[in-house]
Amino acid sequence: MNIVIIEDERVTGEELEASIREFAPWETEIFHLRSVRDAVAYFKANPHPDLIFCDIKLGDGLSFEIFAAVEISVPVIFCTAYDEFAIKAFKANGIDYILKPFTSEMLEEAYQRYTSLKDKLTIKVSEKYTHILDMLSSAESRQAGAILVYYQDRIMPLKLKEIGLMYIENEITQVLTIQGKTYYPNKKLEDLEKISGEVFFRVNRQYLVNRNVIVDVSSFFSRKFSLNLSIPFNNKIIVSRDRTPSFLEWLTRSV
Fold this sequence. Notes:
The protein is α+β, with helices and mostly antiparallel strands. It folds into 2 domains: 2-140, 3-Layer(aba) Sandwich (Rossmann fold), CATH 3.40.50.2300; 146-251, CATH 2.40.50.1020. The chain has 8 helices and 17 strands. Strands 9-8-12-11-10-14-13 form a 7-stranded antiparallel β-sheet, covered by helices on one side. It has a 5-stranded parallel β-sheet with strand order 2-1-3-6-7, sandwiched between helices. Strand 11 (172-177) and strand 12 form a beta hairpin. The longest helix is centred in the middle third of the chain and has 15 residues, at 126-140. The relative contact order is 0.11. The mean pLDDT is 80.
């Protein structure tokens, strides 16, 4: 049996493989892909696997773009941290998914569904992924322009374009404006990442940074980078090693 994992974070991909090997046949071969571009090239040049486990949001785009570009008639199980809108899109199109953070039990349950239905799942599905892409694009066009934050005894809207940095400190989510003011939003950092748009990048588990406040990037130990910002901030912000390739690619995009 052959399985392909499409996941841009190496550690997450390795954890997913370890969990799959707990229940998959011992002779199963697992191959890793980490971007839309690499996946499209791979599937065009190689025999398709028996099963695909796939994250949705990759460093260079949404994984639906892969399946819209290449006709792949094998089952795909999405491991996603996407919002309720995307989940409704999956259900509407009959596509299986697992919500992050996933457990071994969740993966095994999805795998068992695959084994019981695999003979019935070789249908043309590229139109489904194209449809979901259209739905998500429509949702992103209505992306929030502001978030709600707490200031003293008031709740006020704060425009995303005014925020330089969103981060977690002492287990509390905070935002730092370009003007240097600190506020406390009513959302977790994971939720803010979903609505912040392409101008923000999650450089590690703790920081979500606005491209417009990045002055330059310095080397920091092996294969890591330290950000130099245009706004005052006492802590050193390091791009995690796993996210470095997608971060550098993100810096080259026009927004």
